[in-house]
Amino acid sequence: MKKHQITIVDIARQLNISKSTVSRALTGHPRVSEKTKEAVLKLAGELDYQRNMLAINLMSSQSHTIGIIVPEFVTSFFPMVIMGAQEVASKAGYNVLISQSNESYETEVANAKVMLDNRVDGVLVSLTRETRNYDHLNVFQRKGIPIVFFNRVCDDMQVPKVVVDDYEGAFKAVEHLILTGRKRIAHLGGPTSLHVSKKRLEGYKDALRKYSQPIDQELILDYDLNLDKVKIYIKHLLDLPQPPDALFTINDPTAFEAMLFMKAKGIKIPEQIAVVGFSNNYGSTLIEPRLTTVAQPTHEIGQVAAQLLLDQINSDASEWKPIYRVLKTELLVRGSS
């Protein structure tokens, strides 16, 4: 038999007072005497009464919940960002509703609807590799629900964004390869629609320009971040009449796949080809040789993004500003270069 859920009606009946008095006593209303408050709280505890937070949130027009939409959980990057965001949200008394889009635009649209249906007070978003249309995210703005982008951001929306200095990180990575004597540095980048892909490509090119190295278009490839395809692109680069002697990749998982393929082909790393990734993924110190990479402050990204979101939630919409925060990266030189 289903157990009866204790309500304020049960408490009111036993104490012979109105349910509105019970409701006010539970929320600490000043119009209720201390004696009545004590009696209500005591009985509520004895009956194991649980407040209907949904009803309370509907009355207050706040859910005290923020949403987080990320494109994937395959790498350690997004879980680490989420941990930083949760830390800030929790201290402020907010719950976190998390969804991942599996790099699918359609799933991202569905996730956005779930956030709206759950009446989140604000949402943090990192876009999928497929996202080109932002109508599902503009809905939040139209409804007065704050939104903050991080990592993979939408340039078309005037809202707060948190990114790392992708340009500088890429520049330092390629500069390192140049200074260690590499002459033909290939770049396997991500989708050109993504802000991070554009900035890392710019950093790659500008480092080559600074050291008067030619920008060879046959050494620059972009792909859709489907890791199963990495070996196809690496094989193409290796089969060139003049194959590269170094490789800078859009992220660490891409570098891992590239290294595994090259090692299977008997290519020595870094003697024949040096490799540098981006993100300092957990596996970067486990693969052999250990991967040289550009570290991102993942925890801080989440913290900063969550704080920007809470600042908007706790202020009037007329005060919202499209703050753009850029966090620093760090080049970690290891065995692969």
UniProtKB/TrEMBL annotation:
GO MF term list: DNA-binding transcription factor activity; transcription cis-regulatory region binding
Organism annotation: Runella slithyformis (strain ATCC 29530 / DSM 19594 / LMG 11500 / NCIMB 11436 / LSU 4)
Keyword Transcription in annotation: yes
This protein's UniProt keywords: DNA-binding, Transcription, Transcription regulation
Protein name per the record: Transcriptional regulator, LacI family
HTH lacI-type domain ranges (all copies): 6-60
Domain of life: Bacteria
